[in-house]
Amino acid sequence: MKVVTLTEDVFKNCCRQLADIIYEDGFSYDCMVGIANGGVYVAREMAGGAGVPLYYVKLQRRTTGLKNKVLRKIICKLPLIMSNRLRIIESHVLGCISCLSGHKTKKVEITTELKDAICNGAKNVLLVDDAVDSGQTLLSVKAAIEGICPHITVRTAVITVTRENALGLADYRLFQDCTIVRFPWSLDA
Fold first, then answer.
1. What's the whole-model pTM score?
2. Quick check: is 89 in a domain?
3. How many structural domains comprise the chain?
């Protein structure tokens, strides 16, 4: 595993590259859905001025709140090499938790606005997140969207896939080699 730090400019460039991959594949989507929090940043940057409606879904793993509240002050003061090591350890721990939890589907709340878009003509949806760790979040949100309208096509895009054994690999991904990305909004950025 390796850890890559993205500055704001490099992040924007990565989003453009991801959008280019989707464009080159020929997938045309009627709306884009970003998974909060990281997927929102990626979706906003990818959408740019494309004029495609952009929606958001909130769903995060339980450990995120704890990490944000308790460790914020400590993590940002660590030397980069220690922070990288902690990120790799976190990835391994999350992988173990995922295996032990039995890949439970997470509850996803779809806004009325997004339901209306899906039910009233959207045929293709691009679901965007920043990273796939276990894959549970991406699969849960995809299933929730498909549950609203079974005939809709949902494809997924992420900047990175951090684990070889992720449940659901994104259809489009920039880093595919177990790269952990430190995004500009990360606690230790």
1. 0.81
2. yes
3. 1
